[in-house]
User: Which sequence fits this backbone?
């Protein structure tokens, strides 16, 4: 089973290498209950940082079990979203998250 904390730790090198050009220009905030908060800054710094960003463009909220299951099966993200297990305050940007999960 995937682990949220390990995922964000591994994501750092991908972001720093510019692997997510499709989402460039945005800051994503992930608030994962049971795993902490992580920001992915593709606007100014190409970084992944533990903690909250001052002004994210899109905030994703879920619990650790839900996020872990999405990491295991990215196709389940829409089902979790429709059932309210994961929320996003900017749906347009949230749709770009497939790039992060692939």
Assistant:
């Amino acid at each position: 089973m995937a682990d949220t904390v390990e995922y964000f730790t591994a994501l750092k090198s991908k972001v720093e290498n510019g692997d997510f050009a499709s989402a460039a220009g945005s800051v994503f905030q992930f608030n994962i209950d049971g795993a902490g908060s992580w920001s992915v800054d593709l606007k100014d710094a190409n970084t992944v940082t533990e903690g909250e960003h001052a002004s994210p463009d899109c905030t994703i909220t879920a619990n650790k079990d839900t996020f872990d299951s999405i990491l295991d099966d990215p196709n389940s993200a829409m089902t979790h979203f429709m059932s309210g297990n994961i929320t996003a305050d900017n749906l347009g940007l949230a749709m770009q998250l497939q790039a992060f999960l692939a």
User: Anything to note?
Assistant: The radius of gyration is 12 Å. Helices lie at 4-16, 64-72, 77-82, 91-94, 98-101. Residues 4-101 form a domain with the Nonspecific Lipid-transfer Protein; Chain A fold (CATH 3.30.1050.10).
